[in-house]
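quick one: SAJ bound model?
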Amino acid sequence: MNKTMCVIGLGYIGLPTAVTFANYGVKVHGVDVNPAAVRSIQEKKLHIEEPGLQERLNKAVDEGYLTASTTPQEADVFIVAVPSPINADKTANLEYVREATKSIVPYLRKGNLVILESTVPPKTVERVMIPELVKSGLDIGTELYVAHSPERVIPGRIFEELINNGRIIGGINKKSAEMTKELYELFVKGPIHLTDATTAELVKVMENTYRDVNIAFANELAKLAEELDVNIWEAIHYANFHPRVNIHFPGPGVGGHCIAVDPWFLVELGGEKAQMIHLARTINDGMPLFTAQKTQKILNENNIAGGKVAVLGLAFKGNVDDMRESPSLEVIHELQQLGLEVVSFDPHIKENKHPTQTQNFEEAVNDADMLLVLTDHKEFKEYNPLSITPKNKIVLDTKNCLDREKWKEAGFQFHLLGDAKNK
Ligand code: SAJ
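yep, here:
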């Protein structure tokens, strides 16, 4: 494709997107405000973990299709893929989107297309981006085209999903949507649906909110099942055989920069109307405390006062190195509030990013009174429990990722979140 592109934000979404367009022959210039991130990309070193990214980055840089710097440059297409987090009071922080938009204005030319990939509250294109883009002096919709094309990829399978997932593209007018479609058709194999920008914004936030509400439902069922002496994992497995049922799974909380964040956009916009969404957030945010209290209860039942807990898994989910909004951090905080000592280990987080963290598995478990599995990393599933010798052989699995029989045979007292029939 004979087009040039500037991608603003080289994080978990921006970098894989930039690399993919570059691999398909688009001349891409990547921009990030963080000079260290830019430098590492220039040197083909990864600052994020994602299967397949390294090879694709090497190809893009070696073939000269991807360059990076801290400032934008002129291009045919601008893609904005910057964080859209929430503030401490759970309101949307759109400053990165605003600043990224401002940063490209001096480089905009007649006929350019600006695409927002970040997940944002509905009306952000209209209320935050357009007021900045008009400062280019270009007529919006006839000289400058604008669209929202939200990413929908799941960390750990980004490249597979970037290519195969469907896309929803919302333009500020038909031409903007069609130009964006033509661009993504370069590599997207899934269906591409065109709509207006606000609908696309809502669709993306709705998808993540659906998952959050569904997980809250599963977490509520898990607590109920513990009262009923039922294994919730088994119950959900059976319920999901129904062709119209898809209940998600419980856990120690919901983390990441998407599902734990985006529903708040709707709470902020909807106020009293967003009661269920708000309640789901509250239930999921309550799971770290529930997990910590369950841990303490197990220690108490074993007459262990105080006690040292080895937390396995700091990442917000299995097989990623991302600790953003990770429930593990909250669980550790709650354990410490309860007076328990904590040591943590995560094979995917290679530098110590938490005060309790060690890189040495033996050091983490050897004098632990209990193992607490918070992330379903493949490494944990593959552990041979016979070779693990903590002070007390007690384990609480919050993700149903360990083989219960194997751990019991190895002498462990086995506990599972959402199942009171332990041991
Ligand atoms: N989780 C549960 N139970 C479940 C599923 C997930 O407790 O049944 C937890 C995970 O452990 C994790 C959190 O939820 O802490 C979120 O994980 P996730 O795998 O559900 O989602 P993300 O945040 O990695 O990616 C989501 C995806 N959205 C949907 O599936 C609707 C992805 O497609 C989006 O692109 C991404 O958000 C995003 O960037 O918005």
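The longest helix spans residues 197-228.
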